[in-house]
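Hi R.,

Here are the chain sequences for the assembly we discussed:
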Amino acid sequence: AAGVIQSPRHLIKEKRETATLKCYPIPRHDTVYWYQQGPGQDPQFLISFYEKMQSDKGSIPDRFSAQQFSDYHSELNMSSLELGDSALYFCASSLGLKQGPRHEQYFGPGTRLTVT
Amino acid sequence: AQTVTQSQPEMSVQEAETVTLSCTYDTSESDYYLFWYKQPPSRQMILVIRQEAYKQQNATENRFSVNFQKAAKSFSLKISDSQLGDAAMYFCAYRSMGGATNKLIFGTGTLLAVQP
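And here is the predicted structure of the full complex:
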């Protein structure tokens, strides 16, 4: 079965640079979530999109922005990178709430971002 | 706001033995979901088991079962016949049912070691 695809899998950037992370949800999934997992920490919710509209927002810095496109893939744009942005960034996808509350979130393999 | 607490940073179990991981949560909602996710060294987030709060019956998935105590806001995971492949970080997670948000709120995790 198709899974959530994230690219790139690894990314190394320098401070003050920008980075773009991409997420391709499971086919037919219309909801995408982004989570950030720092070293030795639990995943923290950043932002989610349903049908290309932002549906919820968590602890996402103003330097970050995200969007969901017409094909439901999503991109997380990160600017003015800081050392503290080094983390594993997960994307998850699910069917939307309007289709029922039971739908699971399926996680991608994550993008490991290292800021030097 | 909802919170999830895992008070055991690390646990160890002998192969073929049984281990129980603890999780407590705080919420004012009456309907919600609880999950256990497994994160092996590959860092992939894998759903282990799910419990709907409106169901009194404890969920089971093969060697994995939960003890859900709604009044006590407790949600422990029991792993029977532990295998070397069960060694991983285990996260307890909460998700509201309904409403605009479907985000997962994670605990800080329990690192499980399985001794041969």
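Residues 3-115 of chain B form a domain with the Immunoglobulin-like fold (CATH 2.60.40.10). Chain B has a mean pLDDT of 94.

Let me know if anything looks off.

Best,
T.
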